[in-house]
Amino acid sequence: MLTSERKRLILDRLGRDGRVVAKAVSQELGLSEDTIRRDLRELASEGKLQRVHGGALPASPGVADFATREAIATEGKRAIGRAGAAMIEDGQVVILDGGTTALELARQLRPNLRATIVTHSPSTAMALMPHQGVEVIIIGGRLFRHSIVTVGAIAAEAIQRIRADLYFLGVTGIHAEAGLTTGDIEEAAIKRALMAQAAETIALASSEKIGAVSPFLVAPVAALAGMIVEGGLPEEKLAPLAHAGVAVTRS
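and the corresponding structure tokens:
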């Protein structure tokens, strides 16, 4: 079997089963595990999967640049944003993440909302400008241009002084076993810090992120109070997360 044929088979298995086990593929094809692992390494370098111990899981398209991500699942993100905005009550202190889905949530807030929103995203802060009843607090730090959020020691120190009711979390991967993941180690650390300062964390989960994995762990899915997903997602895609005890809200 040609290398291209093996890689196509691996990606087909990944799409069908949601995971690939190197040993099983090697036995099926009568090839060495080293050969299959080399194929997995090359596919991972192309961004087509995420290698894990023993095999691979789907890679998240959410690690693309901000402009590219804005064009992915736009209607779904808008619906998730509306559902998240409806959860915010007057008088609350809410942390709103960076990213394209959080940006939609900011745009969907009701005009008469009176709350405090904390964010480390300049883009999210700008989207909040029309809401006169919303006090906006921006966390400073080094700008991580890929996601247009602040990271680093300055941001981490400022976060320690916040006590929030809710944190709307954006990640690039949500997987029942691999957890909540993202593509940058510093960004993952800031997200953990924000989670620690909120009474509840709600993940904003557009369809391309569910079942996908990125290189850096933020937290296990058990750390969530819930997640908001698109209304039309099939039950089988959400079943592993529901089985892990995650409360799912359909938008």
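(Above: one complete record from the training split.) The domain at 66-250 is CATH 3.40.50.1360 (Rossmann fold).
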